[in-house]
TrEMBL record:
Ranges where the Sulfatase N-terminal domain occurs: 8-309
Pfam families, A to Z: Sulfatase
CDD domains cross-referenced by the UniProt entry: sulfatase_like
Biased composition (Acidic residues): 435-454
Region Disordered, residue ranges: 423-464
InterPro entries per UniProt: Alkaline_phosphatase_core_sf (IPR017850), GAG_Ulvan_Degrading_Sulfatases (IPR052701), Sulfatase_N (IPR000917)
Biased composition (Basic and acidic residues): 455-464
UniProt name for this protein: Sulfatase N-terminal domain-containing protein
Taxon lineage: Archaea, Methanobacteriati, Methanobacteriota, Stenosarchaea group, Halobacteria
Length: 464
């Protein structure tokens, strides 16, 4: 079929930090993503999807609202979603869908404001998931955000030292997440539509896939493998080749987890009535670009280019080669579910994205590297060229352009320089921030969680 017939359930499956080149859908040399390939075989595959931010929270906020980070104000510098912009989740709730969020991702929680529109939320936070903790979290982060830059840096580094004293649960809780999804699908009444957001953290550092996957990918010694963002600054001689193997092992394990979710859909007779949207919110640097690891400090191609395909029971498999901004899922997902008419053309002539000065990650940037990593980034893709703008604290900007097909550096044309500059001048887009807001300078947003359990989980993922 080529037309959508009636309303459909939706499983919105985010595979955190998954790179395109580690999925057979985009790379024929990959031989360990059979479950993802089976979904993609009959799916609408987006060959050129790009995130609007190289980090989970602003990327999700853009997908949920359709806005750029500098419009919705949830950024590296202000890590909280204040709910002032409507998400597409409300469309499902208004249409009578049961809405659920099942994820161990610490940023997609009530404490960060990202789950307020869901009926059911499972974050595996235990005693930390309560009203008092959520209120304390928001209160304390408002206070933190009111401080000047220097006090924030001092506090951030002290917190980093203090958090190491706590026992850290550094698992991705993948088994718990999939088990919760299976239970949710088992309990779903056949006549009640649902929207289920799922976030699997396994491709995100730290990497602890089961032993069978480590053995399969030749990982024996993990002592020299960077496991957290701060290892990029503190590890003397990281083994990037071993890092890539353990990353592949984690992706391999993730593929198995995806297979369990699709098996559960089939076992509950839901597959023919469910749209499965599979994507990564961003990718991951694995040491290729000057030893970069992670995703918080870079807008390199493996970080901003993402996985995206949609397995729809009514639609034939197809490939969309045009550039696509992940924020347009805000318009596309309700259409795929049968709630809205087909939107106007959602492919992009120009792709935009960026991130602010990374306040969340200042605790482990060494002083001699501060000017290199404490920066604001903007990126723009147009006519086969990516131009990147990086700005330091004093407003000094540097520009770089690359040819997307060859990867070679090219001259930054006046037209591209003006286009990337226009992002922060407020002339690059035709929607977004209130008139009183300055583009690129979002108002205060809460940032830090108050509960020790939440802080432990943040530290486990390499934040602070």
């Amino acid at each position: 079929m080529t037309e959508i017939t009636g309303r459909k359930n939706v499983v919105f499956l985010v595979l955190d930090s998954l790179r395109k080149d580690r999925v057979s859908v985009y790379n024929d040399d990959v031989e360990f993503t059979d479950s993802l390939q089976a979904l993609a075989d009959d799916a609408v595959v987006f060959d050129d999807a790009v995130t609007q931010a190289p980090w989970t929270l602003p990327s999700h906020a853009s997908m949920f609202t359709g806005l750029y980070p500098w419009e919705h104000g949830t950024t590296h510098a202000r890590s909280y979603f204040d709910g002032s912009h409507e998400t597409f989740i409300t469309e499902f709730a208004d249409a009578g869908y049961d809405t659920a969020a099942i994820t161990s991702n610490i940023w997609i929680t009530p404490h960060k404001g990202m789950t307020d529109d869901f009926d059911y939320v499972e974050n595996f936070l235990g005693t930390a998931d309560n009203t008092i903790s959520q209120r304390l979290s928001k209160l304390s982060t408002k206070l933190y955000d009111s401080l000047g830059t220097l006090p924030k840096r001092v506090i951030g580094r002290q917190l980093d030292r203090a958090f190491r004293l706590f026992g850290v649960d550094d698992s991705c809780k993948s088994e718990e997440t999939v088990a919760a999804v299976e239970s949710y699908l088992d309990a779903q009444p056949a006549e009640d539509p649902f929207f289920c957001y799922v976030n699997l953290m396994e491709p995100h550092e730290p990497y602890h896939p089961p032993a069978e996957y480590l053995d399969k990918h030749g990982v024996s010694d993990t002592s020299s493998i960077p496991q957290r963002q701060k290892d990029m600054f503190t590890m003397d001689d990281p083994d990037f080749e071993a890092l890539r193997r353990i990353y592949d092992a984690s992706v391999d394990y993730t593929d198995n987890l995806v297979g369990r979710i699709t098996d559960s859909l089939a076992a509950n007779d839901l597959a023919n009535d469910t749209v499965v949207v599979v994507l990564s919110d961003h990718g991951q640097a694995l040491g290729e670009s000057e030893g970069l690891f992670g995703h918080q400090f870079t807008t390199a191609d493996p970080v901003i280019e993402t996985v995206l395909f949609v397995d729809h029971p009514d639609l034939d498999g197809d490939h969309r080669e045009e550039p696509f901004e992940l924020r347009r899922l805000h318009d596309l997902v309700p259409y795929y579910a049968g709630l809205e008419p087909k939107p106007d053309e959602v492919v992009a002539d120009t792709v935009r994205g960026g991130c602010e000065f990374p306040e969340n990650f200042t605790g482990y940037i060494p002083s001699d590297a501060w000017d290199e990593y404490y920066r604001k980034h903007r990126y723009l893709i147009r006519d086969g060229t990516t131009v990147r703008k990086s700005v330091d604290e004093d407003g000094n900007a540097r520009y770089q352009a690359t040819h997307r097909e060859t990867g070679e550096s090219v001259a930054v044309s006046d037209e591209l320089r003006e286009a990337v500059d226009a992002i922060d001048s407020g002339t690059a887009v035709d929607h977004g921030a209130d008139a009183d807001d300055q583009p690129g300078e979002p108002d205060d947003r809460p940032e830090e969680a108050a509960d020790e359990e939440i802080q432990d989980r943040l530290e486990a993922l390499g934040y602070r």
